[in-house]
# Entry
Amino acid sequence: MENEKDIYILAIESSCDDTSAAVMLADKVLSNVTASQAVHEQYGGVVPELASRAHELNIVPVVDAALKRAGVEKTQLSAIAFTRGPGLMGSLLVGVSFAKGLAASLGIPMIEVNHLQGHILAHFIKEEGVEHKSPEFPFLCLMVSGGNSQIVKVDSYKEMQIVGQTIDDAAGEAMDKCAKVMGLGYPGGPIIDRLARKGDPKAYTFSKPHIPGLDYSFSGLKTSFLYTLRKFVVDEPNYVETHLEDLAASFEATVVDILMEKLYKATKQLGIKRVALSGGVSANTALRQAFHDYAKRYGWEIFIPKFGFTTDNAAMIGLVGYYKFLDKDFCAMNMPAFSRTVI
# Structure
């Protein structure tokens, strides 16, 4: 077994519209470089073909920057970890193909990583000079992003079980779509977050789904939100523009309530009070505050990632890659990408 001080892993993440590369020394991140794609803003959502083309342009300079910032030469790398899926197939293929080519040229192993596991295990990333506390196993993780809303029971680095998930739209997807209805930009989640800070979360009441068990649903909330707007716009065409802050605050509060009510139910059913938050929507101000409120009220021990590790990034892929490297869990050169899967 290599000494931990000698395990350098290059990680590549290209599941959607962010091209990211990171260099890990064991479980410590040395560099984490991400190039975002502004081209999708004018379309109100990610255009897969444009995303894959942008990845092709970004991946070489991003990987080069990650290696230089880490002060690591390609010849020092022990392995290359890459996001195999889930995600946009065209985007994934760029990252997978690059990882295969570089690994083959260096004669080092490849490690395939599930993107969702990366988000969940981002809580274990260490940084130089930064105090760090990771959750003990088992813990529950609320994983919320533009494509996923799940409650996951995490028993170890390898063993994870989805105990609840959305049956239709994800929370982040609902935010983006309702932001689009209000004429806001893309991505809509951060814009709603910003507007909501100045609005009244109790100004409007939107319907909440009645889904049994621990599963989520957000399609009904979208419909309720749309009908509310239509009702007021009939009498006042500029109603949305003049009430943006209250609409955003009330919609956001409803999404957070839906997420937290099921999460609380899961903690009661499973008897687990260690609760973590992951995924892009974990950057939302109201959701973070709700975690603190529930922790105070119910005695939870909570874990909330720093903002740099909430959105898609390669450091979380490298962290999973490190654990797999220790187990010698490598993948074959012909391993294909996949667009959909479960943990």
